[in-house]
Structure formats: structure tokens, C-alpha cells
Design a protein that fits this description.
homotetramer, 132 residues, mainly alpha, Arc Repressor Mutant, subunit A, 2 domains, two-stranded antiparallel ribbon, 2 strands, DNA-binding
Amino acid sequence: MQYSIRPATGVPIYQQLRDQIAAGIARGKLRPNERLPSVRDLSQTMVVNPNTIARAYTELEREGLLYTRPGLGVFVAEAPAPASKKVRRERLQKSLDALLVEAVQLGCSSDELMELVAERAKQFEWAESTAG
Amino acid sequence: MQYSIRPATGVPIYQQLRDQIAAGIARGKLRPNERLPSVRDLSQTMVVNPNTIARAYTELEREGLLYTRPGLGVFVAEAPAPASKKVRRERLQKSLDALLVEAVQLGCSSDELMELVAERAKQFEWAESTAG
Amino acid sequence: MQYSIRPATGVPIYQQLRDQIAAGIARGKLRPNERLPSVRDLSQTMVVNPNTIARAYTELEREGLLYTRPGLGVFVAEAPAPASKKVRRERLQKSLDALLVEAVQLGCSSDELMELVAERAKQFEWAESTAG
Amino acid sequence: MQYSIRPATGVPIYQQLRDQIAAGIARGKLRPNERLPSVRDLSQTMVVNPNTIARAYTELEREGLLYTRPGLGVFVAEAPAPASKKVRRERLQKSLDALLVEAVQLGCSSDELMELVAERAKQFEWAESTAG
DNA sequence: GTGGTCTAGACCACA
DNA sequence: GTGGTCTAGACCACC
């Protein structure tokens, strides 16, 4: 997988990397138990300090998306047990509102937004069933 | 209009204010050419440093959402020329992907997400027509 | 509050500090919305690198025990909404088993352990009611 | 005796094995002077590097829980002289406080914790008497 | 070889 | 003044 960092955005490098890895897992580009590049390798490839790479990995491990096998490397975790419907709604609220505010400010119609969401959603890997 | 600041979130105060004003304009609660409270007044009402209020106003002016008439105060700008469909899509891509990644990781199904978006979208004020 | 670090234990400094602050909050020595010493001050007092202090604070913020007000400092958060009984049991399992294994290995009797727990528990601040 | 290793936990493999053997001894599943599987056999059974098995055995020998008869294998040691009550209390303090801090932060009541401890304690094998 | 911890010191955003 | 990010480089534990 390829990672692209834009230093001028103000978004921290470790965050950009974290987001791209998380997206890779969500979209199925990174499979469970797949090994990620080592901190040292990736830091050389991306021309970024090893600590910064390590921080992205650490964040993702805390979130349960990666796990570390000491001495062996960092790996993609199995998909976690699904949260309840209520929890899902609460957690998504913030990102959803951010999207809606942006859409409104851009003069995007409701229909256009729904279409855009549906379109993009096809490219993601969805769980087959959903717990209540 | 009323503004609510949550100090414990880590989101800078000036940005919380900026977002609430921007949302107010987008949702029509603040009308073009309406005058906003003065920096001094608002800083007293909200018990916040005047510099912080000023910064929120400055950001919004830079974005073209407000304009200043020296000696008279700060006002809501006219609605800007709508962006092209292509530009809208590009701008929304980032927030949309963030939402989708979160949804997938929460084990939220595609249908459930669409339903959630549609539901919440009803509560926003949309432009009636959309330029291409 | 006073913090004591034992460098020879193998337990990371940032962890020791984290644990002591967490204990301070649990035992009521640190009150909600109380301000903690600044990273720079504490790093001088404890003769530890500022990054190490910052890491302890960051961990606690992620856990929801502290919050940061940008430019002002770090503060103790309000007590969070209680978890369900089932969740509580699961989360405590690990620490509880560690305690029991240790007790057994030391040749401590079951009664003696219960007595020890009861004794020490009196010194902690307990929630008045418990959600199911 | 069966050993189960969870690679995704971040806990070193040698330590997981060490803990399970120690617990086995404490709970009487492994009897004094009983022979343990050879490093080579166990490393094959568990699909783990022999060095890792050896390290677990070495640690336990250092702690006095195992002893080696060169050319014959590794054996469970006799039960050690019980620690004094004071020593037991001191040693348990740390784990106990960790448990209490967690319980408080989870909103677990004092009674609920005592009940939980008592319940779980029944499943452990306790020494019949305790020296002072 | 792997990641984890700690130090030192620079730079930036926020109030 | 506050904390947050990033770099540089050292040392350790694990496999």
C-alpha cells in the first residue's frame, strides 16, 4: 500500500498516516493478520522520523485495529465485535454533522449528497450482517 | 443567536465559535447583511478573551462569509457563487471518506448508514436548486 | 499531590505517573476540574523529560480522565457515565485474576485476601449508586 | 497441562507461558517433583521458538518454582516457605490498588467488587492454613 | 531484525 | 504562559 503525506495541511503527519491505514483496513486493502512495513523501513520510504511512524501504529493499536507481536512486527487485527445500533449512531453523529454542514455550505442539494454517499459507499467493504 | 462553548473538548474556542456562526449562516439563522454582536459585547456575554472572538470573525471574513464595515461592525456576507458540481464532490470527499471509514469500523451496514444520513439530512436547511 | 518514580522497576515512567494520577482521581485526592501542574513545571520537579510527562497526560486524556484547555493547561474530567454490570465484570477480570494468582502464590488464604480487599477498599471513593 | 498463547495481546510469549505454569503450580494442577515437557517437545507442540520456552523455564527456575536435573529435565519445586503476613500484604498492595482504581473508575460499587472477588476466588485453589 | 521508552531541543498554535 | 508535533539519536526487551 502507498501512503501520501501532505505536510502543509496542518494535519499532523501521524494522523494522516493513521487515517490512511484505517481507511485501508476499512476498504479491505489491508487484510487481517497482514504484516505492516516495519517502523524503520516505512520511516525511510516516507522520509519521516521513525517516532512519527511508531506513533501512528501505537494509536491504531490502542484503537484495536492493529496488534504488535514483540520482536516480529505489527499486524492488522481481526474485525472487532460490532457495537450496538445506539452506540453506532452516537459515534457517527459527529462525522455526519461535519459532512452535512460542509455540504450545506457548498450549496450541495440533499439529493446530490445522498447520491454521492451511495456512490462512494460501494467502494467500501461492509460487514455482511449487523448486530442490534 | 446563542453560542455554546464546550471547554473540555480540546477544540479551540475560536473554532467552535467559527463553526457555529458558519452553520448559522448555512442554515439561514443568520441572514445576509445582518449585523453580528461586537467583539467586546460577545466576549463579555460568553466570558471569553476578546482576542478569541476576534479570531473567529477574522477567519470567517477570510473565508468570505463575513465582511467588516469599519466603525459599524461585522456583517453576514451575501451567499457566494455556488461551486461547480466537480468542486463540491472533491471538497466533500475527505469528510465523506472519514464517515465511511468510521461506519465500516463500527460494523454499521451500508443501508443503515444511508438511512442515518437521510434522517439527519432532513434537519438541515438545503439550497433549493444547485448549479452545475 | 506528590508523585514518586522508581526507575529500576522496568515499569515505564509515564505509566507510573499515569497510574498515580489515575489513583489520585479514584481516591478523590484530585477533584473534577482541578488543574494539574504544567508539563514544564512537573518535568522540572520530577527531573524527567517534558515529553514523558506529556505522554502520561495524553494517555489519561484519551481515557477520559483528564481534558486539555488549549493555552490554559490540563484539568481533571468529570466522572464518566457508568458502564453496564457485564462490561464492568469483563474489564475487571484481568486485574482480578492477576491479584488472585499472586495471592495464591504467596500462600495467602482466601479469607485473608477478602479481609485485605475490604480494608483497603474503605480508603477509596466509591460511586453512591451503580447502574445495571 | 494445556497452554494457550494469544499472540495479539502484546504480552511476551515467554511470559504468558511463565504465568500459566506458575498458576498451574499455585492451583495444584502441577504437583511438586512432577516433570515438565522438554523444551524441544513443547516448542513443537506450541509452534513457538525453543528459546522462548527456555526463557520461561529459566525465569521460573530463578523464582524457585522449578528446578533442573541436568540430563533428566525440568521439574516442579517443593512449595516454598510461606511469606510472613506483613510481606504478603506489601506484595499484594500494588495489584490490589490497581484493581481498586479500575473498579472505582468503572463506577463499580464496593459491594459489587467484594462479591466479584469472592465469586472468582472460589475457583482458585487456596492453601489450607496460613503461617503468620 | 522487531517495536518501546526516554532524552534533548526545535517550532507552532492557543489564550 | 500553556500543550502538541516533529526530529535526532540512545538504550532496552523480544524473537
